[in-house]
């Protein structure tokens, strides 16, 4: 495209040649960043971009205290989990203490995908069943096993024959009062089919924000009947906390708590190390010990001392600096601003959120799905040109996905709202 700088065009060509086409770039005019600080990313010319998209650096880009902990540990030793290391045990105890009492064991991983992969292994080993139930546009990761239970990947993967997908009440247009019953009925039908075919249900695996489905967070508790049905059938409830975990919802540390229901296994990732690759599976000891007695789990990098020191600093700051309270307050401010915008300007069909995770449905009265998708993409790119980063989600990719670092302040929220207002004006046909 004409407005891509020659410097960037040359890099894109080299990138495509060596990395291949599975690596996608975001935005029509891809961005090139050389530095990050708090809510901001900077390009080579020193232009600042407000990051309203990255949920990995929850405490802000390049948090000095997190980085100092990481560097200090890297300067002492980076060892694996087969040696005695008090910090590993200290952090494991601190992490487990943030969960309901029954979830009292933790195993470390390097990514969210590894966490889900391991959780599925544990579930299948514990109950001997094979079937997995997920939401219809779920994404759970990149390993062979979890890609096969990630319908969001579309035709790029062959889904597992033991996978059953269930519709969410929100996208199906079911009113909130009937949401729980609708979801439970979907899950019961899936279980019945799995049982009829002798597959059985190993697990219901869900992200309680349903981020890749388009951010369907309400009403809290609507998953309860479905979870009960899975347990009756011998399956486990795996809460994928990669998106909602570590305070994203503002009200709770863990997304499942917002629904008032404790899982058998919870899988963690993304913000756990504020950018350092570390994840975990936290679970009930009945399941975890059953797995430990039979399987051997060794992971070269997971739980290494540098990752643990980093994650420990993240947890300390999250608790000490009252990050959840901030996420709740800023989420409320952003929601109020969006409701106001929606009332004044055409283009916003609905706003959904929990804390600082927002789904904003885009489109005008009577627009076809393809036009709504195009309008959402236009808005995302207009925001990028204005120096604000977000993306899209949902089955039709016509929902804006907005998840700023949890440290964002009122001025950042207001800057985003102004940029969105301008972009909406420009995107209306
Ligand atoms: N689960 C969910 C809900 C996710 O959104 C993602 C990543 N987007 C993953 C799992 C996989 O995590 P990772 O990319 O760290 O493997």
UniProtKB/TrEMBL annotation:
Is Cytoplasm a UniProt keyword of this protein? no
Alphabetic keyword roster: Aminotransferase, Pyridoxal phosphate, Transferase
Recorded protein name is: 4-aminobutyrate aminotransferase
**Which cofactor names does the annotation list?**
pyridoxal 5'-phosphate
Q: Which family does it belong to?
A: Belongs to the class-III pyridoxal-phosphate-dependent aminotransferase family.
Spell out the InterPro entries in the cross-references.
Aminotrans_3 (IPR005814), Aminotrans_3_PPA_site (IPR049704), PyrdxlP-dep_Trfase (IPR015424), PyrdxlP-dep_Trfase_major (IPR015421), PyrdxlP-dep_Trfase_small (IPR015422)
Recorded GO molecular functions are: pyridoxal phosphate binding; transaminase activity
